[in-house]
Structure prediction request, 261 residues.
Amino acid sequence: MNPDSLLIAGKPVRSRLLVGTGKYADFEQTQKAIEASGAEIVTVAIRRTNIGQNPNEPNLLDVIPPSRYTLLPNTAGCYTAQDAVRTLRLARELLDGHSLVKLEVLGDPHTLFPNMVETLAAAETLIRDGFQVMVYCSDDPIMAKRLEELGCVAIMPLASLIGSGMGILNPWNLGIIIDNARVPVIVDAGVGTASDAAIAMELGCAGVLMNTAIALAKDPILMASAMKKGVEAGREAFLAGRMPKKTYQASPSSPTSGMIR
Prediction:
């Protein structure tokens, strides 16, 4: 195993870029973009995507086969803990007992900000029911820690609102969450371009999950490739350790000793 592998629920994951499957022009574009991203974990909105519950419609699993990818069923579109739990129980049936899931319980349809009261309730029920829960949440360090204490296997705070492309608006809160977490912290929502992904990784995030930034790019397949490189570069920069910032102080790149006078 690669010593720098991402571990989720104890299992190593090769790519630190996780991607979604919504908003693409068609399944062919979805397939090509996900291939270009190098992602291993692919999240699927059970309420919006057919993975077998509608036998007469095209099935996403024909282009994103579970034999090649780790599917991450999610509860996009759920606004109560009850709906989220019911949706993920359905997903477990459709995917032959699959227990790794992404929980999100939304607060309103305009901002898609998480409802943390309902999220906590759903997480508690799902974990008690044997699910391995990766959870979308606000960037509140107290709430993030509480979700970890409940037993969530990954904490997924937003960088900014879902689909906004605004990038990381509060790196300080993310830093607190990362410093206090003993499980992977994966930025979920708000990434707009490759530099946003790189910044998230440089902060020490374990990974980045995105959908809209790739799917709504002018060239989704090329953007997927760019995001792959951004995540990899950000991780390497984090491991390398950046030089300290020096306010009002320059440091020449070339040696000053032995200069010709």
Remarks:
- The chain has a mean pLDDT of 90.
- DSSP finds eight helices and ten strands in the chain.
- The radius of gyration is 20 Å.
- The longest helix spans residues 220-240.
